[in-house]
Amino acid sequence: MYLCYIDESGTSDVPGNTSHFVLAGVSVPIWRWRAADQEISHILGRYGLRNEELHTAWLLRPYLEQRRIADFQQLSYVARRSAVERERNAHLLRLQQTNQRKTYRQIKKNCAHTHPYIHLTHQERKSLVGDVADCISNWGFARLFAECIDKIHFDSNRAGRTVDEQAFEQIVSRFEQYLANTDETGGQRNYGLLVHDNNETIARKHTEFMRQFHRQGTLWTRIERIIETPLFVDSSLTRMVQVADLCGYALRRYVENGEADLFRRIFARADRSRNVVVGVRHFTNLSCTCEICRAHRVS
Ligand SMILES: [Zn+2]
Question: 141 to each of 28, 30, 149, how far by Cα in Å?
């Protein structure tokens, strides 16, 4: 039995504020789950974050107030946290006093998201995310599935489906195919289950899509090995959904900005068949020569 943890990066709205929408899935066999989960928590523990969420985008943002603190790097974790909180509180108070309600709310929200990580310098946060990516890269038992849709190139009329639907259909089809390829000798079937971050809109959509795939198959395959509709969990508590979040982030930053460092580490886990990457696709124009497109083509 395999669990495939799914998360998205960017918005599926057209045009939205990102050029790409990425849906990423990380599959692990259930007998590897405990060790994999613990490995990630262990890395976080080295950075004083053992019980905190791994949220890649918030970790990698610049925290401007850290630059205003003299010798930030030389301070202890505790002193860094106090100094950042002092800066933040002063800033929020200024915004309240000058009646900038909208900015105040926005900054307050950002502060809450980044609060667990404020004792780490930008370099330390980058190396934390890099360490997790290296760890994933070495998981010989894990497979990465992803659909990276260039929305400028996507025509929902021609595709006959929405961005969301195409992305989900691709992940489901490839995971099903992977399960079929890993069937045990002697006819023993492998089964799979999708696990997804609990977002109400997406939960409803993906549940409906999955019911439909169970009835009619996808455009590519019948669904015989993936059971049930996706299970929805709280991503702030589920390490492996956070791993899928990192993979989605790395893929989107690569296809949008060419940032290759994190991407190369996690792309090592893309499902392959005879050296051709079949698990990850970049849906864009045919002349794209990015590493995903090159690896996806049969030469
Ligand atoms: Zn490409």
Answer: 6, 10, 26
Topology adopted by domain 2-45+132-296: Nucleotidyltransferase; domain 5 (3.30.420)
Q: d(Cα 218, Cα 59) in Å, to the nearest integer?
A: 36
What are the angstrom distances between the C-alpha of 233 and each of 6, 169, 241, 275?
11, 20, 8, 34
Tell me, in angstroms, the distance from the centre of ligand 1 to residue 130's CA: 23
Q: How far is the CA of 270 from the centre of ligand 1 (A)?
A: 15
Residue 243 alpha carbon to ligand 1 centre in Å: 23
User: What is the CA(200)–ligand 1 centre distance, in A?
Assistant: 31
* Residue 73 DSSP one-character state: G
Distance 126 CA to ligand 1 centre (A): 25
Structural domain spans, the chain: 2-45+132-296, 64-117
Interval between CA 267 and ligand 1 midpoint (Å): 13
What distance in angstroms lies between residue 291's CA and the mean position of ligand 1's atoms? 7
Cα of 282 from ligand 1 centre, angstroms? 5
pTM as predicted: 0.95
Residue 4 CA to ligand 1 centre (angstroms): 24
Going from the Cα of 105 to the center of ligand 1, the distance in angstroms, rounded, reads 38
CA distances from 273 to 29, 239, 247, 299 (A): 19, 28, 20, 13
pLDDT by 10s per residue, the chain, length 299: 999 999 999 999 988 889 999 999 999 999 999 999 999 999 999 999 999 999 999 999 999 999 999 999 999 999 999 999 999 999 999 999 998 899 999 999 999 999 999 999 999 999 999 999 999 999 999 999 999 999 999 999 998 999 999 999 999 999 999 999 998 777 789 999 999 998 888 889 999 999 999 999 998 899 999 999 999 999 888 999 999 999 999 999 999 999 999 999 999 999 999 889 999 999 999 999 999 999 988 75
